[in-house]
Specification:
The protein has 235 residues and is mainly beta. It is built from two helices and 19 strands. It folds into two domains: 94 residues, Immunoglobulin-like, CATH 2.60.40; 97 residues, Immunoglobulin-like (Sandwich).
């Protein structure tokens, strides 16, 4: 018996077993994994030359572009973006890509409300959102008092201030809130379209109206001047 070869036999058996084990491991399929962690994905929208905003509100008078921005930005090209319109549990794919341009005055079916983001390994994240279509409110230039009017009374007289506003979204349960500003003092008058104000001394005054809707869109009239003549002083 060759004693020199005896210690080698167990080593050859172990080496053969380890090689088979390693080969089996290499044949096993890899699990899906992200190429690089995604810190965040923001859905943003813009119209005309305005910057992108995460406030998903658009005016129906012009086309809008919605986009997905990833952090870090360098992994943007490694992801796939799919925009869907979902209604009654039915997903309709609108487009694939980071950007999508649509017309808010079209049917709702063209406005996305779901984004699916996939990486190269098949992992995905789903983002659901709502794009608000909102028409800003508009104030009529016709007011009481009109610009340049003269009011006769006294500091105890309650002078009428009235105005009118409109919003095409009122049918969609939008609400308009108003601010009456007189000589720099603002009065929140809510949904009222007229109020009476006393305490105005003789002389020149200015006022304006500000209107705001539920979505933060506003309209403001330029300042109008009016004059108060104190009839008690005249007597």
């Amino acid at each position: 018996m060759n004693l020199f070869n005896r210690p080698i036999l167990p080593f050859l058996v172990f080496a053969s077993f380890f090689a088979l084990f390693l080969a089996g491991c290499l044949d096993a399929p890899d699990y899906p994994h992200a190429l690089e962690p995604v810190e965040s994905i923001n859905v943003m929208v813009k119209q005309k030359k305005s910057p992108y905003s995460t406030l998903l509100k658009v005016n129906p008078s012009d086309s809008a572009t919605i986009t997905a921005k990833t952090v870090p930005e360098k992994i943007q090209d490694d992801l796939t973006f799919k925009w869907f319109y979902v209604s009654d549990s039915k997903d309709s794919l609108l487009i694939q890509g980071a950007d999508y341009t649509f017309y808010p005055n079209n049917l709702n079916e063209s406005i996305p409300n779901k984004l699916v983001v996939l990486d190269k390994e098949g992992n995905q994240q789903v983002y659901e959102f709502t794009v608000v279509i909102n028409t800003p409110p508009v104030l009529s230039d016709s007011t009481v008092p009109a610009n340049g009017d003269t009011l006769y009374g006294s500091p105890f007289s309650a002078f009428l201030f009235s105005w009118s506003s409109m919003d095409l979204d009122l049918y969609n349960e939008d609400t308009l809130f108003h601010i009456l500003e007189i000589d720099g003092n603002q009065y929140n008058v809510g949904t009222l379209l007229e109020v009476k104000q006393s305490g105005l001394k003789a002389g020149k005054h200015k006022f304006r109206i500000i209107v705001r809707d539920l979505y933060g869109d506003t309209d403001t009239l330029p300042y109008k001047n009016f004059y108060v003549v104190d009839t008690l002083e005249v007597q």
